[in-house]
Amino acid sequence: MSKTFSTADVAKHNKTTDLYIVVDEDVYDLTKFQDEHPGGKKILQRVAGKDASKQFWKYHNEGILKKYKPQLQVGSLDSKKAEAAPAPEPAPPAPAAERKEKVVPSAESGVVVPAPGPAASEEPTEALDPFGSLIPFADPNWYQSYHSPYYNESHAALRAEVREWVENELEPYVTEWDEAKKVPDTIYKQMGERGYLAGLMGVHYPTHLTKNTVKSVSPEKWDLFHEMLLTDELSRTGSGGLVWNLIGGFGIGCPPVVKFGKKKLVERILPDILYGDKRICLAITEPDAGSDVANLTCEAKLSEDGKHYIVNGEKKWITNGIWCDYFTTAVRTGTPESGMSGISVLLIERTEGVSTRKMDCQGVWSSGTTYITFEDVKVPVENLLGKENQGFKVVMTNFNHERIGIIIQCLRFSRVCFEECVKYANKRKTFGQKLINHPVIRLKLAHMARQIEASYAWLENLVFQCQKMGETEAMLRLGGAIAGLKAQATTTFEFCTKEAAQIFGGLAYSRGGQGAKIERLYRDTLAYKIPGGSEEIMLDLSIRQSMRVHKALGMKL
Ligand code: HEM
Q1: Looking at the domain covering 401-552, what would its CATH class be?
Q2: In testing the pocket of ligand 1, which one of 24, 25, 60, 519 has its CB within 8 Å of the most ligand atoms?
Q3: Which CATH code for domain 3-84?
């Protein structure tokens, strides 16, 4: 692989039986690959022995090279070696001690939500070093040296750590996994090993439950902005299926156990979950009850000896269900008419009477959307989360966390659409002009960017409020705003996929290839607009809830 070639050496490999090409000064042996090349072998034979960089970048994106490099690259041109030395490395970030850190979460025991220290908004810090492609609006603006009160060196370090993993080990394979409707189990396991699962619960980093920690951020520094950027960077894969596979079930199924589960239960089941050995999901929605949670019918009756609940009912559209060992399940313990005051939440373990079957859906293919039936399932009373008939509070507390997760993903997916479009519009020519030179294309990009940036600024503000307020106050005061932002994020996401598809044209209509992310995200939009509270319910709730809260705060009309 480390062989050096001159252009004259490469030129000798110009036959169908011995076919080399050059892409970006690296040399590839395509002799065997030509027969399986999806673009055809003749097109490769026409560039045999030559530098085909221009043609390559016309038809492919970076993921293809990353994926095929290990098997096809045989060396590099001698010219590359000569130039390699002076290549400027981005300046390393200044040591943490040299910078003033903004958010210093305190780790008092008994405080569940990471609370920022007093420094959080006192004085402005220097902007962080630039990071990423520097395409405007393709990353949050603090990646591009904008000043921000929310981020410090530990966020920059996590950003680099996650991006490296995503770009090298996830993104090149995402299309394959989506088509297979399954992500290898090893990837989920790595989520545990890398300490990411433990950091995604909206609580202080739980070192008492796992020995795994995140390499670039010490547990006591972990805050909600780390959690946000972890989800954000994972979403750069441009696959709702992948993100939901890794955090969709866990991120909403596990927090209620940690926050409302009895100590013994938590200590028994959490370590295996946080290591990535066991999986957990949230089971609320039913064939006949979605956003209308108060209407659910899956029943749990106390056994005569009072030691078990006997659960009977169905759950539908449950993310990750087919792979799960544990189900955080909303059940009716009250009378059929009891509404929201007859709901409880149980941690149901995969045991006799629990059946799961995979559902076929429009989008998020690799997320394992599941239909679950519970038939006379015996659940120990110790598995009750919170108090009997007070499960509505557990469900509501969880909604803010779930919705913020959805918002983060939608906004990054919107950025992915934007970024892909900018890159494509700068190489694709129509009517003798690059797409970027057509005002109609720039107009589409502008409408995407303005929605992304405005929504993201609202998101950062709300995450900051969650961090400052603590869980109960956040639940009472921010529900309306978070619901409004969820609707804002899903409409932005839908708009961006629609406009991106128009820019990519036929490439966004067929699966795979350069338009793969756009085609997939277009199909994923409904999986964001409907669950976690549909767009219509979110908009209505945003006003109803805010009016109620502000009335209590003394609103004058
Ligand atoms: C390292 C060398 C190459 C590899 C690994 C490679 C791989 C691939 C793959 C995986 C696809 C499927 C579409 C996708 O997933 O993007 C594809 C499509 C294609 N490739 Fe290549 N390719 C290589 C070089 C080239 C070169 C040098 C040319 C042109 C001279 C070329 C022309 C095409 C065309 C026209 C398509 C079809 C694009 C479409 O469907 O729109 N490829 N290639």
Answers
A1: mainly alpha
A2: 60
A3: 3.10.120.10
